[in-house]
Amino acid sequence: MNELDARGYSCPEPVLMTKAALKKGLPLKVLVDSMTPVQNITRFASNAGYQVSHKAVGEDFEVTISR
Amino acid sequence: MVGFDSSDDAAVYRINDDTAMIATVDFFPPIVDDPFQFGQVAATNALSDVWAMGGTPKIAMNLLTFPSCLSLDAVRGILAGGYDKVMEAGAVIVGGHSIEDKEPKYGLCVTGFARPEEILTNDGAKVGDILVITKPLGTGILSTAAKAGLLTQAEYDEMLAIMTTLNKKGQEAMLPVRPNACTDITGFGLLGHVQEMAKGCGHTIELWADSVPVVPKALELAKDGIIPGGAYNNMGYLAGDVAVDAGIPLERSDSFYDPQTAGGLLISVPEARAEELLHRLHDLGVPGAAIGAVLPRGEHLVHVRASR
Q1: Is residue B55 in a domain?
Q2: C-beta separation of B248 from B306 below 8 A
Q3: What's the confidence (pLDDT) of residue A1?
Q4: Confidence (pLDDT) at B262
Q5: Where are the domains of chain A?
Q6: Which of A15, A46, A63, B83 has its CA 20 to 30 A from that of B11?
Q7: Is the pLDDT of residue B63 over 90?
């Protein structure tokens, strides 16, 4: 599993980091620290044709992107 | 005449039977990197509230905070940008105040005047009115993209032109048509300000999603997940009051929550005079569009339909 820690970055950075990380392989797990990047990554990934899901992990969120 | 209780754009004080004074203040951190452009945007935004209330801005005072590391040229640039827009508005800067702070912030305290009977509030919309908007949406999304260098020069210029266009001409076109209500679209996004208007008059406002002008690049960016956190905050607090019909593209409804800087006027005008308003706006070069209507109170304060 390809992983990316985008905690501590504000938008639009987490989406741009996710875009770059997708090139390294799927599935991709992205860790973010608020709902704004969760929603932005979900919009980007589903519009690009990927499956996206997310869950809360403590105070952070984990977004999983797959084919 | 107008104070805290109606969450309107500015305070209004009746001086005598002929004159009402309109007072408003607004300032924020840089939304664009160029100091002169930032000054222009902040001033355009601060002046707007006076026009939205039906008045004419006359006196403005600078509010400025800046870190000691900021160059004198940058400070001069910000103030020159503000001065430029206040001049264009036909008002004068008569002073101001600056303090040192970690982050630069700039804005204006603006005083304007109107005849008391010409004051326009955001709570006067009537059933049968048509809603008209005078600028396209998308500046929040676009400025988020600009921060990451995702805009071409032409796209950046289009965003800047929207944020530095005074609502002066929009108001000039609107006043003779005698609207029932007016506000300007800023941080709460289109839907936040429509909800305020609906709440104020107690009716339901219906929006036609495909009639709302949105900068095409902003829709493209919204699809790509380049949406500012403020839009999601707006979505959160408006959730109970706004119903969005199925079938409306997500990027389009997202743009209706996008916080705007120096957005356009939102005008509620009787249907019989709506065409005249649109003609007057277009004659003055203002891109007005009819985007919705005021209906008897329904289930939600705001109902977004796919089309008219």
Answers
A1: yes
A2: yes
A3: 83
A4: 96
A5: 2-66
A6: B83
A7: yes
CB contact under 8 Å between A40 and B227, yes or no, is yes
Sheet containing B181-184: give its strands across: B181-184, B265-270, B129-133, B289-295, B204-208, B302-305, B242-244
Judge if B149 and B227 occupy the same domain: yes
In this structure, the strands spanning B11-14 and A28-32 are: unpaired
Q: Please tell me the CATH superfamily of domain A2-66, with its number.
A: TusA-like domain (3.30.110.40)
Q: Do A43 and B229 touch (CB under 8 A)?
A: no
Q: Are residues A12 and B232, on separate chains, in Cβ contact within 8 Å?
A: no
Q: Which residue of A10, A43, A45 is in closest CB contact with B250?
A: A43
Closest approach of chain A CAs to the CA of B6, in angstroms? 30
Contact B232 A36 (CB under 8 A): yes
- Reply yes or no on whether the pLDDT at B5 is more than 80: no
- Could you list the residue range(s) of the whole structural domain that residue B11 is in? 4-118
With respect to residue B89, please indicate whether it lies within any of the assigned structural domains. Answer: yes
Digit-coded pLDDT (tens) for B116-171: 999 999 999 999 999 999 999 999 999 999 999 999 999 999 999 999 999 999 99
Q: Final residue of a domain: which of B64, B94, B118?
A: B118
**In A32-67, which positions are buried (b, 16+ CB within 10 angstroms) versus exposed (e)?**
bbbbbbbbbbbbbbeeeebebebeeeeeebbbbbee
- Compute the nearest-CA separation of A16 from chain B (Å): 9
Region B15-42: mean pLDDT is 96
Greater confidence (B214 vs A11) lies with B214
Chain B contact for A9, CB < 8 A? Answer: no
Q: Say if the Cβ atoms of B226 and A12 lie within 8 Å.
A: yes
Give me the pLDDT at residue B274, please: 98
Residues, chain A: 67
- A10, A15, A35 member nearest B224 (Cβ): A15
B240 vs B303: CA distance, rounded Å: 11
Question: Taking CB atoms and an 8 Å limit, are B225 and A42 in contact across chains?
Answer: yes
